[in-house]
Amino acid sequence: MAKKIKHGSGRKEWIIIAIIVAIAIALAFVFYSMPKSTIDYLATVNGAKIYPQDLSEIALTIPQSARGNITDADLLEQAINFEIINQEAEKLGITVSDEEVEQSIEESVKGFGMTVADLNASLKQQNIKWNTLFNAYRKQILSYRFLNSTILRNISVSEQEMKALYSQYTSQLNTSYDSIRQDLNNTVFAIKGQQALGILLKQRRAEYEILRYVGSSQ
Fold first, then answer.
1. Residues 6+ apart with CB under 8 A from 29
2. pLDDT over 70 for what percent of the chain?
3. 157: domain range?
4. Strand locations in the chain (E)
5. What are the backbone angles phi and psi of residue 115, rounded to the nearest 5°?
6. What are 119-127's contacts with CB under 8 Å, separation 24+?
7. How many whole angstroms separate alpha carbon 215 and alpha carbon 218?
8. Comparing 35-49, 110-124, 131-145, 149-163, which segment has the lowest mean pLDDT?
């Protein structure tokens, strides 16, 4: 039986978000231009509307170093993924309160040695609305709770899997197995999580009514 290894909650949360981003990029096969009609939303998922504002919120969940490679198509597909997760979470009674979002933001700010006032000033300089950041955090927390309560709770990482990954990249790593054991653990966990989430999203996309109101070849 594979031995389960505990993952740090903060690190794991970013791994989960990275998994969702990767799935979204894989699904964005065509370029979506902004809608030219009078419709003010981009897509619907079982009737729930996705607006341009949702894409702005999604962009804030992506590490800044990776944003340059993200297209509008990627953002839209990720927004669809988040809405699917939102609806699945609702079925299970998983929610996030405003107070929990505020607390998460405050903890993040403190972790960077900043205050909420500093954050507000930074947002103003970047022309980012507080609600955009607030809703981005809500999406992150809700996704983390849903995935951690469902598909990720049954994922385990074995020593054999980590050693296999290490052997595959030994010549490139140029370091000992023990020194990067946790990184190997996180990588294997992310790979298996991405595979599991990919299966779930594929199933739900086949079941859900997803309509896009943007220019595409589909």
1. 73
2. 81
3. 9-212
4. 43-45, 48-50, 210-212
5. -115, 170
6. none
7. 9
8. 35-49
In the chain, how many domains are there? 1
- The residues that bridge with 44 in the sheet, in sequence order, are 49, 211
Q: In what order do the strands lie in the sheet with 48-50?
A: 48-50, 43-45, 210-212
Specify if 188 maps to a domain: yes
**Stated pTM of the model:** 0.75
Query: Is 123 domain-assigned?
Result: yes
pLDDT digits (tens, 9 = 90+) for 86-97: 999 999 999 999
Measure the CA–CA gap between 195 and 68, rounded to whole angstroms. 25
Q: Which of 189, 191, 198 minimizes the C-alpha distance to 27?
A: 198
Determine the average pLDDT of the residues in 79-89.
Answer: 96
CATH number at residue 201: 1.10.4030.10
Strands 210-212, 48-50: parallel, antiparallel or unpaired by DSSP? unpaired
pLDDT of amino acid 38: 58
Q: Among all chains, which residue has been given the structure tokens 């996309």?
A: 205
The answer to whether position 1 is within a domain reads no
Question: Max Cα separation, the chain?
Answer: 59
Asked if residues 96 and 34 have their Cβ atoms less than 8 Å apart, the reply is no
C-alpha to C-alpha distance for 93 and 91, rounded to whole angstroms: 6
- Residue 4 domain-assigned (yes or no): no
CA distance 191 to 182: 14
Query: Contact 65/18 with Cβ under 8 angstroms?
Result: no
